[in-house]
Amino acid sequence: RELEAMGIEGAVHQPLGIDVDTFSPKRRISSLREHFHLPPDTRLLVYAGRFTAEKKLPVLIEAVRRLGPPYHLLLIGGGDKLPQDGQVTCVPFKRNQQDLARLLGSCDVLVHPGDRETFGLIVLEAMACGIPVVGTTRGGVSELVDPDTGVLVEPNDVGRMCEGIEAIYACDRAEMGRNALRKAREHYDWNHILPQLLTRYAGLLASRARAELEAERIMVAD
Question: Alpha-carbon distance 130 to 3, whole Å?
Fold first, then answer.
């Protein structure tokens, strides 16, 4: 819609894809809380990605601080310096995707407070690991998460973020996780997405070839 408003016609939506063999519930381990010296009943939230201003991580950290125990936040990534809090654990970003999948799948919920995502690949990776999502109503994340797979809240609002996190724990998270897994596998598996992408590129190349032939024909005719 934004592109059409700019006068760009013919735009189509082409999502990215994920490796559903790597990002899978089979990566889940039961010892993650013990590894981080957390109580067994900890409500373990996770965020993974860059620590930059547009990700709005101070909003998430403050929300977890307000909620208090048993909530705990695992931040996976790096970048800007973040507020320190005893309910937050930071670990470096995992370049090995199996390691990342293991951490994602072993938490309860992915929380993404950003409102400027163009897509939100980490959200799909978490969904493919079988966990639901708390996101915001703006940006690309809002196009991936629905009421069956997570909760969306207004961005830049600590109170709303607290409400969203509490709300998802009041839901059937196991069912949400199954829905998230099914949606990720059915709609965003690279085995489905890659043929779509190649077909789009083939169509663009064919259109250009036709345009060049037509231009040559006109020049000859002139």
Answer: 33
